[in-house]
Description:
Blueprint: E1 3-5, E2 12-13, H1 15-21, E3 30-32, H2 50-61, H3 67-78, E4 90-93, E5 96-100, H4 110-114, H5 117-127, E6 133-139, H6 143-152, E7 158-165, H7 171-178, E8 185-190, H8 194-206, H9 208-216, E9 219-223, H10 229-248, E10 258-263, H11 268-278, E11 283-290, H12 295-302, E12 304-306, H13 327-334, H14 339-352, E13 354-356, H15 359-368, E14 369-373, H16 376-390, H17 396-412, E15 418-422, H18 430-437, H19 445-456, H20 462-466, E16 477-478, H21 483-492
Parallel strand pairs: 5-15, 6-7, 6-9, 7-8, 8-16, 10-11, 10-15, 11-14
Antiparallel strand pairs: 1-2, 1-3, 4-5, 12-13
Helix pairs in contact: 1-5, 2-3, 2-10, 3-5, 10-11, 16-17, 16-18, 18-19
The protein binds pyridoxal-5'-phosphate.
Amino acid sequence: MIFYSSRSEKYTADSAQAVLKGIAPDGGLYTPVRFDQMRVNVADLLSKSAREISAEVIGRILNDFTGEEMRELIDAAYDGKFETEDLTPVEKVGDDFVLELFRGPTSAFKDVALSVLPRLILAARRKLGVEEEIVILTATSGDTGKAALEGFHDVPGTRIVVFYPDGGVSDVQKAQMVTQTGDNVGVCAVRGNFDDAQTGVKNIFADDELNHWAQASGARLSSANSINIGRLAPQVAYYYKAYCDLVLRGEIRLGDPVNFVVPTGNFGDILAGEFARRMGLPVAKLVCASNANNVLTDFIRTGVYDRRRTFYRTASPSMDILVSSNLERYLFMASNGDFDLVADLMAKLRDEGVYTAPESLMKVMRENFWAGCADDDRARRAIGKVWQDYGYLMDTHTAVAWSVMEDFKAQEDNGWVNVVLSTASPYKFSRDVLSAISDAEPQSGFGAMDMLNALTNVPVPEPLTRLRDLTPRFNDCVDQPDMLGYVKRAVAK
Ligand SMILES: *Cc1c(COP(=O)(O)O)cnc(C)c1O
């Protein structure tokens, strides 16, 4: 399979190169165009396990790896890490379905992909004869950092450094990161907000001197964020898995299309659904759900992408994003690989903060996508109502999607089954979830966790219960300019 940079035809890569490089030299995102060559027939998957489906689907997208390699890699990635062999179970809630993506080690959906990515990077490194140690640098607003640490810790040939904004993550998220085990990990707070940490990491990647120094030290810098095709591919698998579950339970007939409602930030999760659709999965609509940062809702409805707007800090922080980086891949796909158009739109976004997509492209998009948004208030009410009516406890991100599903059903009920993607355990956002179903006012995140558990009897994920007994290993805190020094010390270890 050939992957193209979304910004110029000069840069192509095979799947191993695309995984190892992460981003193309011109800043574009590696994207396939021949989806007809990646078809996966659902009927062939019905008798398979979650891991087998995963290996099959990922192997179709990243086809430089043999079937054998892929199965081994998937086994190593998921073995003993998820609560169920199912990996991503589907629950019926009322007339609709919830696809639970949070049964992994860090209780957020990023585990599904970040368990696989380190193995893919190692396999790519072997295939390409690269010998350097791979050093992963990540800035996180909470979920990605911990999921990346869980994925990379003690994986030979890799090292990982995570930066988080000091005071900018929840108690639970901080505890998750600073207690991380492993000899090849580093965790460091940065004075400032998430953007400061993110900019610091970007500066390090752009620092020629550091890159030369790293090379001389036998290291190669890489990133674990969702622009890597190796993070997208594992997410395509759970759309297939969910569909198979619905068929096997007799909820739908083989061939019936299904709506997927996706709580969206960087547009990675929902783009994986579009990959599945183009690979042959019967998908009716992909419903793009945003919180108060509704830049994507406006874009899908009007064709104007405008990031010049107020940034809101919401109760669904992993969706607090104004530049959805994976949308670039979709623009490339929906324009039939029009590099010049994508490069032009991305330049406008960078320089002016706004662009307008051609109507022909938006027509394609609206055939397959529907968009809506819900603010914190609506999401909170949805958590309360779904708990009351069905005894099902949702987290704040899932609740945004649930609310948008209700709008979708009211405005455009196409009669097909709806599957809401659930991206985090309610216990990861205990305080907000608790306040949605009671008047309790806990003092800390852990206090909220206990109260929520006492009130609902929904089991707390094991790794979260153990968290408060673990000893913190990392207490470094640096200013942005000193991040470079921290990385150098980590690489030299
Ligand atoms: C990352 C994340 C999202 C958004 O996913 P994207 O792929 O960025 O659209 C939603 N919910 C949670 C809990 C997340 O961690």
